[in-house]
Write a structure and sequence with these properties.
Blueprint lengths: L2 E5 L4 H9 L6 E6 L10 E5 L5 H8 L4 E4 L9 H21 L4 E7 L23 H20 L3 E6 L11 H4 L3 H13 L7 E4 L28 H7 L8 H4 L14
Parallel strand pairs: 1-2, 1-4, 2-3, 4-5, 5-6, 6-7
Helix pairs in contact: 2-3, 3-4
The protein binds 1,4-dihydronicotinamide adenine dinucleotide and D-galactaro-1,5-lactone.
The site of D-galactaro-1,5-lactone (15L) has 7 residues, from loops.
Length: 264
Amino acid sequence: MERLLITGAAGNLGRLARARLAHLADTLRLSDIAGMEPAGPNEEVVECDLGDAAAVDALVAGCDGILHLGGVSVERPWDEIQNANITGVYNLYEAARAHGHPRILFASSNHAIGFYRQDEVITVKDPQKPDGLYGVSKCFGEAMASMYHSKFGQETALIRIGSCFETPRDRRMLATWLAPDDFVSLVECVFRVPMLGCPVIWGVSDNDEGWWDTSTARLIGWRAKHSSEPFRAEIEAAAPRPAVDDPSAVYHGGVFTATGILKA
Ligand code: NAI
Ligand code: 15L
């Protein structure tokens, strides 16, 4: 690619992508509403609110691919989610339509299906079951991608990320963990596969415990190499097993299922 746009570049995964995925393009265009490190060689840094249509149009112009990580990434009041994850996603898809349909990786989330129970293994064909307004916004993003694919041929990888952190942080993440190395190889596969379409793929490592049928990963030739298992003993020793009816032990989305509707 000549130019890859990374939204959310000031965030947790955006900083990881900036550090480890520069080889995917001649130039990285890095964008966030928050401040970022100044541009290095082969980088462009652009502050932009995803809710600003004209700014997003200019941001997307000239890009061959978009790693869309920007937006509200946890449960928050509606106004914040609406601006970044609803209006922002609309702005992004309209800008992509105006500028030649650059391939998009949409960072969806397990919270689009968070109300499934941990004794259920689900596939990407099971209906969405969001666990909050944040989860609803990810369902919206998936629906926008599907519509733009059917209507205009826009390609998007809908990556339902589990929990991507340096190490798993609690018992639930033994099942949901996506190792940073696996995140990197997953993004590489999305932007390298010749034909993408609009598949839903779980962003999760090869953990022993898991609730998601990961077979669609083969559509992009991706295979996770890491597992949360080496962290199990330490995590189990650090905190007692939660009660059987504790949301963290009942639902895929864990404690997100127990959060109310937050107000500003
Ligand atoms: P993060 O919260 O660290 O980064 C998100 C970035 O988006 C922030 O830097 C924030 O300033 C920016 N942002 C928020 N509102 C914006 C707006 N209106 N305009 C422009 N930028 C805005 O989140 P993280 O962990 O890096 O996640 C990246 C993406 O992956 C998010 O979309 C998140 O929903 C998704 N995801 C992440 C998971 C994880 O385990 N890290 C799990 C599931 C999904
Ligand atoms: C997400 O969608 C969030 O962005 C991330 O911060 C974690 O909470 C993750 O899900 C998770 O479910 O562990």
